[in-house]
Specification:
The complex is a heterodimer. Chain A is mainly beta. Chain A is 11% helix and 32% strand. Chain A has helices at 11-23, 49-53, 102-125, 152-156, 520-532, and strands at residues 144-150, 160-166, 172-178, 190-196, 209-213, 217-222, 229-234, 239-243, 251-254, 266-273, 281-287, 291-298, 302-310, 334-339, 346-351, 357-360, 377-378, 381-384, 392-397, 404-409, 413-418, 426-429, 435-440, 447-452, 456-461, 471-474, 482-487, 494-499, 503-508. In chain A, the strands form seven sheets. In chain A, strands 10-11-12-13-17 form a five-stranded mixed beta sheet, with no helix packed on it. In chain A, strands 1-29-28-27 form a four-stranded antiparallel beta sheet. In chain A, β23 (435-440) and β24 (447-452) form a beta hairpin. The longest helix of chain A has 24 residues, at 102-125. By secondary structure, chain B is of the alpha+beta class. Helix content of chain B is 36%, strand content 31%. Chain B has two helices and five strands. Classes of the chains: A mainly beta, B alpha+beta. Chain A binds chain B through residues 91-95, 97, 100-102, 104-106, 108-113, 115-117, 119-120, 123-124, 126-130, 518-519, and chain B through 1, 3-4, 7-8, 10-11, 14-17, 22, 24, 28-32, 36-37, 39-40, 67-68, 70, 72, 74, 77, 79, 81, 83, 85-86, 88, 90, 92, 94-97, 99. Chain A: InterPro entries: Dynein_IC (IPR050687), WD40/YVTN_repeat-like_dom_sf (IPR015943), WD40_repeat_dom_sf (IPR036322), WD40_rpt (IPR001680). Chain A: One of its GO terms (cellular component) is axoneme. Chain A: One of its GO terms (biological process) is intraciliary retrograde transport. Chain A: This is Dynein 2 intermediate chain 2. Chain A: Keywords: Cytoplasm, Repeat, WD repeat.
Amino acid sequence: MAHDAPSSSFPLGRLLHVLRLTAQMPPPRRPPLPSHADSLPGCFLPLSWSACAQCCVDLKSCQTASIVTADASAQVRNHADAQVQTEALEPVSVQPPSRCDIPRLAAFLRRVEAMVIRELNKNWQSHAFDGFEVNWTEQQQMVSCLHTLGYPPAQAQGLHVTGISWNSTGSVVACAYGRVDHGDWSTLKSFVCAWNLDRRGLSPRQPSAVVEAPSAVLCLAFHPLQPSHVAGGLYSGEVLVWDLSRPEDPLLWRTGLTDDTHTDPVSQVVWLPEPGHSHRFQVLSVATDGKVLLWQGIGTGQLQLTEGFALVTQQLPRSTKLKKHPRGETEVGATAVAFSSFDPRLFILGTEGGFPLKCSLAVGEAALTRMPSSVPLRAPAQFTFSPHGGPIYSVSCSPFHRNLFLSAGTDGHVHLYSMLQAPPLTSLQLSLKYLFAVRWSPVRPLVFAAASGEGDVQLFDLQKSSQKPTVSIKQTQDESPVYCLEFNSQQTQLLAAGDAQGTVKVWQLSTEFTEQGPREAEDLDRLAAEVAT
Amino acid sequence: MAEVEETLKRIQSHKGVIGTVVVNAEGIPIRTTLDNSTTVQYAGLLHQLTMKAKSTVRDIDPQNDLTFLRIRSKKHEIMVAPGNLAFHFLVKLSFCFTR
């Protein structure tokens, strides 16, 4: 049977059709569905929904009510920008020329140029300010004695002050008591006394530290870094190192009396930095037996010999004619030593023969000596300078010029040598008696001080006068000699000097000795150069 | 333009002159022969000093005016030539100490 598609012979099709209808838009009014159920054979099921299927579906509008909106004003707070991030400062650049007024600049320069050139010319031709120097600090005009220190038990024995040293901080001065005119004083006990000048309640008769030594101490040197270690050389040839901060047992190291030690009194001791370890130091000692020995303190309290040098007449360089010596090896006694501030291996030795020697620690030649020694002795001398009229007692290398050094001896003369030539640059007669010590000033390149046998300390300023001393300080009243002196490198206005009466006097120098003038270093160079020619 | 440069060069090559700086009325350097940071430092410091010196001279005598300012120190001398629109100063090695 051919029927229309919607009206299928099955009742399910009618259900689907209605469902389809209701799922879509509500259809317009339609005629009621033909019910074909009557014509179909088979069972007949009454359709309960066909009644409701005949009801019409109305289209109704569906709409929500419109929402009423109105604009109201909104208030915003005032705000300002604050910068919270730091930026690198932009360098103010020079304004590019295009922005500034060139013609006006040109006019200004034209106007100003003549005046400026005139002033410049006047400037370098004028002598207006030639001698003018402003001093912003107070002037100290005179040299005055700050302290007079002494140790009564030593003075009672008639001991002289033979060595003086300032410690590394510049506040402690130590002196060694002994006799310079040795004789049979080798068995007498002597002392090393130290005064702390910065301490309140400084008592001039009461040293802050006193150490007894088994024999006369002839020289003294404080450790360059440790404020309480001091090395001393004895009349017996020993070298001792004390620690002054330990009053109950001050002795740190000693050489003892072995084959290595000096056989003559030790003339001078110096602390040297170890090559390689700049904070460890060794002690160098020179004596009149001709030996220069380098000691190292080891743990057991023993000073052990690390290097040794011996001076033999045959091995001296023949740069100057020396007095002929009798045959055989003769030792040359060394009486003073000074190390160069510019070359740490170079040193100057003063000898009993009166001629300074330029020596070096870095030599290889062995010394022709029969003296027994645990380390091989080498010959250190490289150059011989012209001699004094007598033994040299003191040498000092200039801290400002690498070639200049001073030497002073028993002939009462001070010689200024340059290491480049054998004869001295100048020779000054300071005293009719001996000169015992000479020292360059640590702050003024042209100033040095000398201690004389007439009891005064003479200060020379080569800038002012090269013939006579600028200041002559009388240390002793009875003209007994002054044996040693040292400048204080930390407090540069202090100078300590020790004399034969057993007193140490600390002098305060006037300001002219403590402040460097405008071109002193160049003057020193000029002096070294002009006198040499 | 070339005249400006030439004048400055003449001054700069004078014996003993280390540096030259030209500064405008606000204290900003417009020409210099020194390096930047030094120029700025000199300009700032000397501008104030020159203004003070100028006002001092005017205060003492209102008909008077500053013509030249020199500052001599241990190492150098600074010479300032003021103008109504610019200041001009030099840093100069003081040759007066030679004999």
